[in-house]
Structure prediction request, 361 residues.
Amino acid sequence: MRIGKLDKYIIKKFIGTYLVALVLIILIVIIFDISEKIDDFIENEAPLKAIIVDYYANFIPYFVNMFSPLFIFITVIFFTSKLSQNSEIIAILSGGISFQRLMWPYFISAFFIALFSLSLNLFVIPPANAQRLAFEQTYVHGGRYYNTNRNMHYQISPGEFVYVESFSTWNNTAYKFTLENIKESKIVSKLSAEKAKWDSTSQSWQLKNYFLRKYDGDKETITSGNQLDTTISLTANDFYRNEKTVSSLDYFQLKKLISTQRMRGDSMIKFSLIESNTRMAVPFSAFILTLIGVALSSKKKRGGIGINLGVGIGLSFTYILFLRFSQMFVITDTLSPAVAIWLPNMIFAIIAVFLYRIAPK
Prediction:
């Protein structure tokens, strides 16, 4: 399993073709994206520096990772088909190298690409997404954000529950606010307010027209007033979080958020779990798609590399669409996030093993 000249030759071809495909497709996508958003940039007076630095510089890592399966498939299909058409694969196998040994440099290359993709997912893309989403919110969506959720229930700590009928992002105010404390299945206190306004300076909620009920056995004490400041483990940022904002959290922040959302019983946890599993599933797909690509393109065909490229692009788009479609199984509570997100890898792994077994023949 030592790396020889043949291994270095294949690794060089693999990585080199991958980088070339990466640059070419990114340039094409950026051109199309500019043509689509140019009107929004002009209408919202987006500065040129912000477009280049805050948006496109952060858009590239996001796009590279999202379509990494496509780049890998195109790379493997393209250069392996060329090796096959030039009879290099036949010469390698005739020289006594088995098909299994031929896969060694491919998997080494796939390992580096998977490591690159995983590094993007964990360290580069989250802060890049934070800047990109902030730019889109300001210069594409015109700074508008609306929270359309209603009747929100949260467990902010063990035995402490919050209910909010609606939240206005215009003035950071929660309406029909209720805070309940429960111990040993019995309610201890219930704090209700007509509205609760978030104070970013003191990091607390200002309750308006509140009623505080305290229960001690059969005894009930009621206190009311016009205003009351209270601090709880819930901030205005929790109401701004949606399915996109979880992509701006790094590994540790996302892990902490999932733990908090699970404790709160937050329905938004499904998007956090989708993000967490996707960050691991996409890099792992590099090995599966590499195996499929080599198995499909290692045999010389009369039609040249065109047929292989067509099949490769078709399969890669099928994988990407399947990966996106599997998220619907999570949203509709059909499958757990781990099963749904890893399902495309499971199915394509079975296809890869089948193609690998018949490829040497």
